[in-house]
Structure formats: C-alpha cells, structure tokens
Amino acid sequence: MKSKAELIVLNHTKIGDNSIVLHTLSAEYGRRGFLVRVSPKTAMALFLPLNILQAEVTENPKSDLWFARNFVSVSPLNGIRSNIHKNTMTLFMSEVLYRVVKDQTNEDGLADWLKGQILTLDALESDFANFHLMFLLNLCSALGFDPDTAGIAPFADIHLAQVETLLKRPFAEAMLMPLSGADRNAIAESILKYIEFHTESAVNVRSLAVLREIYG
User: Fold this and answer.
1) 3-state DSSP of the chain
2) How far apart are CA 103 and CA 216, in angstroms?
3) pLDDT score recorded for residue 216
4) Same-fold call for 2-73 versus 78-215
5) Residue 183 class from Cβ within 10 Å (0-12 exposed, 13-18 middle, 19+ buried)?
6) Which residue in 170, 23, 185, 52 sits closest to 122, CA to CA?
7) pLDDT for 101-114, tens place per residue?
8) Separation between Cα atoms, residue 50 and residue 75, nearest integer Å
9) Which of 7, 118, 166, 169 is the most exposed place for a label (fewest CB within 10 A)?
10) Does domain 78-215 fall into CATH 2.60.40?
C-alpha cells in the first residue's frame, strides 16, 4: 500500500552503503523509521534534523520497517539553516524527541505541535536564546503532563523561580527573559530530568553539550 505523508526528520542511521533508516515523526504514523535508498548523488541535506518533508510511503504488512521515497521539502527553513545557533537548537530538539518518543507510538497532535514549533523558530529573527527552554516545557504539555511549580520543584533546585517565571510568562516575554548561559544550561537539565521522570526513560541528550558551548 502506497500513500503520501508529511514526515518530520528526527535522525537517520546509515545501513550499509546504499540505505539509511530515516527516523521521523508524522501525524499519519507517529514515530516511525523508514528504509530509504540513497546513492552518492542523494542530497543528504534533505535529511537534516527537523526538516519537514513530503514523501511516498510504502507500507509493508510483513515488516515493521516500511519504505519511503520521492522526498520533497515542504518548507526550506532558511531562517534555521542560515543560523548556527538555530541549527544547534534543532539538533537538541530532534535528539530530545528521538529519545523520549518511543518508536511506533503515535501521540495525538504531537506532529502538528512540532511543526508549529519548527516554523516558529524559523521565523524568529532575534531573541530566541530561550527557545529551547520553552520547547522543553511545551513538550511536557504535548506529551500529556503539564508542568507546574510543585511538580518541577524537585528537579529545578535553585532555578525554580526562573522556571516558574518561564511557565507563567507569555511566549514573547519568555523569549526576552534575561538568563546567563549557565542558567539556561541548568534549567534545560532540570526540565530534562523532569521529562525523564514522567516518561520513565533515560534521555541522555548529547547535543546539550553543544548548546553549552554556543551559549556559554
């Protein structure tokens, strides 16, 4: 059975010389990996983290690994790809989702929410240093456990007041909240621990270290 679907790239894994498994999130299939044939002529930039692609999907009733082909970019994400800080954020965001959302699960509305997050980051021209923090807090809600002060307190330690402020402020004001690089890193780690607690999974986001280098 063949159909077209809009897929958001989370990651890809190389399989031999001619194939990758493309790990994606979509409204149609939730979190799912697709086998993709590649060659030296394949434009691998299509598969950068959080790219939004339309593809032809071939379902295989005899296997959990389906095929995808004929990819077309839905949005060029020029605002992200031309900015090293935004690009690093997409690495972080995609890795969090890759590790938190279980393979072959479909959280209702999660893909649409993620697309909105990606397009918002793409459109922001300045004052986006706190975006990944709001992404983590909003991800909690998207996964079904709304963060509140009491719930996050055991994980936030001395940064609880700052997390509480982020929770209560409108998005535009949260983007302007002054935070040091060390504060952002500590807050991100505390929210990740909160997510680990609720999802009963070890997140271990390696790209957080890259964000530390960029934001100091």
Assistant:
1) CEEEEEEEEEEEEEECCCEEEEEEEECCCEEEEEEEECCCCCCHHHHCCCCEEEEEEECCCCCCCEEEEEEEECCCCHHHHCCHHHHHHHHHHHHHHHHHCCCCCCCCCHHHHHHHHHHHHHHCCCCCCCHHHHHHHHHHHHCCCCCCHHHHHHHHHHHHHHHHHHHHCCHHHHHHCCCCHHHHHHHHHHHHHHHHHHHCCCCCCCCHHHHHHHHC
2) 33
3) 53
4) no
5) middle
6) 52
7) 999 899 999 999 99
8) 11
9) 169
10) no
- Rounded CA-CA distance 37/117 in Å is 29
Two tokens, residue 60: 């295989």
> d(Cα 194, Cα 203) in Å, to the nearest integer?
10
Among all chains, which residue has been given the structure tokens 């957080």?
208
Task: Please give the CATH number for the structural domain made up of 2-73.
Answer: 2.40.50.140
Strands 30-37 and 52-58: unpaired
Q: What is the pLDDT of residues 57-77, one digit of tens each?
A: 998 887 888 999 999 999 999
Q: Where are the domains positioned within the chain?
A: 2-73, 78-215
The whole model's pTM is what? 0.93
